[in-house]
Amino acid sequence: MNKSELIEIISEKGNIPKKRAEEVVNLVFDSMTDALVKGDRIEIRGFGSFVNREYESYTGRNPRTGESIKVEPKKLPFFKVGKELKERVDGKPSTPSGSSSSGNEISRSGDSAGSHPASH
């Protein structure tokens, strides 16, 4: 899934205009980016967390020439998957019984709402 597909899904499932869905997606990503730039940790329960990891400088090698190069210290965002997401991707049940399993119900009902007349 890419960003435009995410916007499309939010627009359809949220029953909001595409432009508004795009604003929401941009707001979420911009807020997350700002938090990481400030060094904050982002935790989304059931999904995962984003943290910055700091890496020391080290001597690397240019793969083309074999020449030694100094790699400067850096900070990179790192994503750690949450338990619920890990279990769902792995096909293990993680939601309590009786609750919705995923957002697929909406797309299925959208499919049966006339886009596939043979299914009625």
Tell me the overall shape: elongated
Question: What is the annotated CATH architecture of the largest domain?
Answer: Irregular
Number of strands: 5
Strand residue content: 15-25%
In CATH, the homologous superfamily of the largest domain goes by the name IHF-like DNA-binding proteins
Helix content: 40-55%
Helical region count?
A: 4
- Termini separation: 29 Å
| pLDDT < 50 stretches | 97-120
Q: How many structural domains in the coordinates?
A: 2
Q: Report on the biggest sheet.
A: 3 strands, antiparallel
User: Spatial order of the strands in the main sheet?
Assistant: 1-2-5
Note the run of SSEs as H and E: HHEEEEEHH
Give me the Rg, rounded: 21 Å
What are its keywords?
120 residues, alpha+beta, HU Protein, Chain A, 2 domains, 3-stranded antiparallel beta sheet, two-stranded antiparallel sheet, 4 helices, 42% helix, 22% strand, elongated, disordered C terminus
Give the helices and strands, then pairings.
Layout (H helix, E strand, L loop, with lengths): L2 H12 L3 H20 L4 E3 L3 E8 L2 E4 L6 E4 L2 E8 L1 H7 L14 H12 L5
Antiparallel strand pairs: 1-2, 2-5, 3-4
Helix pairs in contact: 1-2
What features would you describe in this structure?
- By secondary structure, this protein is α+β, with helices and mostly antiparallel strands.
- The protein folds into two domains: 1-40; 51-94, IHF-like DNA-binding proteins (HU Protein, Chain A, Irregular).
- 42% of the residues lie in helices and 22% in strands.
- It is built from four helices and five strands, in the order H-H-E-E-E-E-E-H-H.
- The strands form two sheets. A three-stranded antiparallel sheet has the order 1-2-5. A two-stranded antiparallel ribbon has the order 3-4.
- Strand 1 (42-44) and strand 2 form a beta hairpin.
- Helix 1 crosses helix 2.
- The longest helix has 20 residues, at 18-37.
- It is elongated and about 55 Å long.
- The protein starts with a helix and ends in a 5-residue tail after the last helix.
- Mean pLDDT is 84; it is low at 97-120.
